[in-house]
Design brief:
Elements lengths: L3 E5 L17 H13 L3 E5 L20 H7 L2 H6 L16 E4 L5 H4 L4 H12 L3 E5 L22 E2 L4 H6 L10 H7 L3 E2 L10 E4 L2 E4 L5 H17 L1
Parallel strand pairs: 1-2, 1-3, 3-4, 4-8, 5-6
Antiparallel strand pairs: 7-8
Length: about 230
């Protein structure tokens, strides 16, 4: 049977200040989607509320807009997927082998408190599935607890967009919280690359995370490698 991937995207379109737009960092979805499509995996997209997932405007400009994201923008059927994302209550976690949280600053507002996403994540993890995220997507793992009450990230090695990268990107002052610090506060063993804005991915068992937008493909490749091992088993 084909492996099935559940991508998670945001419904948020702006920072606290409505004049500061944000949304899904498109390449963080497309790079992973491409990797999984090459493997023949089935894929679906969910968001905290379902429906439209806005796009982060900065990710749609040169040089950040690459061939993968351009191809998605030019494909009406793919763009339709971002207008009709599923709600968490429409998802049966038993149908999926992997949950993959995409990023963009938008997710900082709607991922952490989504009980629906937490339910799906917990169920996938506890049945032996893979939990993954890239960049700010790890905000979706901040408050996910397992059935025994323990935080999923406690004691786990992981990565995600660093506070230094927020500062260098000039947006730290607009952030609702310091995601890196919040992860550490929850007992996660946060890691990052020696240099900012380069590809870096970490696998700690079935938890696979990437640091920034340039890490999406590397994260997906690690997920696919884990799925291959599970097939052989």
């Amino acid at each position: 049977m084909s492996k099935r991937i559940l991508h998670v995207v945001s419904n948020v379109a702006h920072y606290d200040d409505p004049s500061h737009p944000t949304g899904l960092w498109l390449s963080e979805l497309t790079h992973a989607y491409d990797v999984f499509a090459e493997k023949g995996y089935e894929q679906r997209i969910v968001s905290p509320k379902g429906g439209v997932s806005p796009l982060e405007p900065r990710a749609l400009k040169w040089p950040l807009l690459d061939a993968s994201a351009k191809a998605w923008l030019a494909d009406k059927s793919r763009m339709e997927l971002l207008s009709t994302t599923a709600r968490p209550d429409e998802i049966d976690p038993a149908d999926y082998d992997v949950i993959y949280f995409t990023g963009g600053h938008a997710v900082m507002w709607d991922f952490p408190e989504s009980e629906g996403l937490q339910r799906i994540t917990r169920a996938i993890w506890e049945r032996g599935g893979i939990v993954s995220s890239v960049c700010h997507g790890y905000c979706g793992l901040l408050n996910t607890k397992l059935s025994d009450g323990a935080l999923l990230v406690a004691g786990k090695r992981l990565t995600g967009f660093s506070w230094a990268e927020e500062v260098l990107a000039g947006v730290a002052k607009y952030m609702p919280y310091n995601a890196e610090a919040e992860m550490k506060r929850r007992g996660a063993r946060y890691q990052k690359a020696l240099l900012p804005f380069i590809s870096y991915a970490v696998a700690d068992g079935r938890l696979v995370t990437g640091q920034n937008p340039w890490s999406a493909r590397a994260t997906a490749v690690k997920v696919a490698a884990l799925l291959r091992v599970r097939v052989r088993e």
